[in-house]
Amino acid sequence: MDAFLNTFFNFEIMAQALPLLLKGAFMTLKLCSVVILCGLIGGLGLALAALSPNKLLKWVSVVWIDFFRAFPPLVLLVFVYSGLPFAGIKMSPFMAVVVAFFLNNSAYFAEVFRAGIKSIPRGQSEAARATGLSTAQAMFHVILPQAVRNVLPDLLSNTVEVVKLTSLASVVSLSELLYSANMARSVTYNASPLVLAAGLYLLVLWPLVRVTSRYQRGLAVN
Amino acid sequence: MRFLETFFNTQVIANYLPDLIDAMGVTLGLAVTTIIAGVLGGALLACLRVAGIRWVNFFIIVFANMMRALPPLVLILILYFGMPSLGINLSGWMVIYLVLSAVLIAFAEEIFWGGLTAVPAGQWEAGRATGLSRAQTLFYIAFPQAARMGIPPLVNRTLATTKLTALGSVIGVKEILSVSSSAQSFSGSATPLTMAAIAYLVIFVPAVIASHRIERHYQYAT
């Protein structure tokens, strides 16, 4: 028991590591806000393209979505970070993470938006068009607000996934929360900083996860 | 032309193809064992939760929320670097297997449980009225319906979890990403990364397409 506590819950080491970890947490926060925003905007664009009447646009975006959903995000990240420099495209770790996760997340968000838009009956857009709104106005003022409300739980759980995903940035040595914790671990030869990082992740994500499962159950009962 | 030589160098492909095929075997093996443990474990926990024993349910809920809220890479690092201090040496393969299974168990449990709560109470009452025991009603009447409802989200989650096998590269499991990463640094060519990308597409594009089929099939069935 002592050995266990000493390895995973050594408070002295945790206290030492805390400033470094908070710095990392700040970087994680910065990364999350950029990546989530890009993913939402890209996903909406892709979803609209996938549902557009233009055959070519539709086909390209559907293939694009499936292609990037099939790639493990870490593989995408490694490819962008260490593969693209061979083609003369060199990026900072932060930029590489943003680009790789944009490709991955926008595909996932696109699937969610697409499901949402498809859940709205045709009559809604016909009625909107009949009152004189343009196609774009009908989409943004009538369809999308309802669609987003319908898929809010999925959007939320996808966002949780994105936050968890940012921990992969540690692999390309971006000094976010997990990277800082692992750094502290290798200096102290003790796993407590990693447990502290886990605690910080839980602090933010546990409430969100609880909300998503309540949503799921609520929907199921209806 | 230079592009082809950088990303599709035939000499490099010939050199590393056998290693990569072995690595695909490791990735697939890890994926299959994880899926088996995850789906069975999740079903078991969901059924156990039906029994309504308070302290058991408390542990199931805490476990499920924690595994869904924590980034898997954090768990992987904690197990891989923490356990040896307790005298327990786990191989990288074992660590990935344990963590991914635990994550999939947690998600599968929530999905099955969501399905079980959605089975109308009348089904239970009818089962009991025909003389089935509670356990029989669960196994023959409630669970099959819950499982059916849970299939689309379960397929998606299974795909997402098996893609995480790429995290094995962080702790030296010889799966596709780690083999191709080290081949890339040995050969000084980006070709092994292209090979890895193709290997993942070979495995996951059929899986993504199948998941669409399954989703459509079960959407209208319920």
From TrEMBL, chain A:
CDD domains for the chain: TM_PBP2
Record carries keyword Transmembrane helix: yes
Molecular function per GO: transmembrane transporter activity
One Pfam family here: BPD_transp_1
Membrane topology, from the record: Multi-pass membrane protein
UniProt subcellular location: Cell inner membrane; Cell membrane
UniProt keywords, alphabetically: Amino-acid transport, Cell membrane, Membrane, Transmembrane, Transmembrane helix, Transport
Residue ranges constituting the ABC transmembrane type-1 domain according to the UniProt record: 25-213
Cellular component, GO annotation: ATP-binding cassette (ABC) transporter complex
Transmembrane annotation, as ranges: 28-51, 63-82, 94-113, 187-209
A biological process term (GO) from this entry: amino acid transport
Keyword Cell cycle in annotation: no
Purpose of the protein: Part of the binding-protein-dependent transport system for glutamine; probably responsible for the translocation of the substrate across the membrane.
Family: Belongs to the binding-protein-dependent transport system permease family. HisMQ subfamily.
PANTHER family per UniProt: GLUTAMINE TRANSPORT SYSTEM PERMEASE PROTEIN GLNP, MEMBRANE COMPONENT OF AMINO ACID ABC TRANSPORTER
Name assigned to this protein: ABC transmembrane type-1 domain-containing protein
Species whose genome carries this gene: Puniceibacterium antarcticum
Organismal lineage: Bacteria, Pseudomonadati, Pseudomonadota, Alphaproteobacteria, Rhodobacterales
UniProtKB/TrEMBL annotation, chain B:
Organism field: Puniceibacterium antarcticum
Membrane topology, record value: Multi-pass membrane protein
Family label: Belongs to the binding-protein-dependent transport system permease family. HisMQ subfamily.
Higher taxonomy: Bacteria, Pseudomonadati, Pseudomonadota, Alphaproteobacteria, Rhodobacterales
Superkingdom assignment: Bacteria
PROSITE patterns hit by this protein: ABC_TM1
Signal peptide (UniProt feature, chain positions): none
NCBIfam families, per database record: HEQRo_perm_3TM
Cellular component terms per the entry's GO annotation: ATP-binding cassette (ABC) transporter complex
Cell location: Cell inner membrane; Cell membrane
Protein name: ABC transmembrane type-1 domain-containing protein
Keywords for this protein: Amino-acid transport, Cell membrane, Membrane, Transmembrane, Transmembrane helix, Transport
Residue ranges of the TM segments: 20-46, 58-82, 94-116, 137-155, 190-210
GO biological process per UniProt: amino acid transport
InterPro entries registered for this protein in UniProt: AA_ABC_transptr_permease_3TM (IPR010065), ArtM/GltK/GlnP/TcyL/YhdX-like (IPR043429), MetI-like (IPR000515), MetI-like_sf (IPR035906)
Ranges where the ABC transmembrane type-1 domain occurs: 24-210
A Gene Ontology molecular function term of the record: transmembrane transporter activity
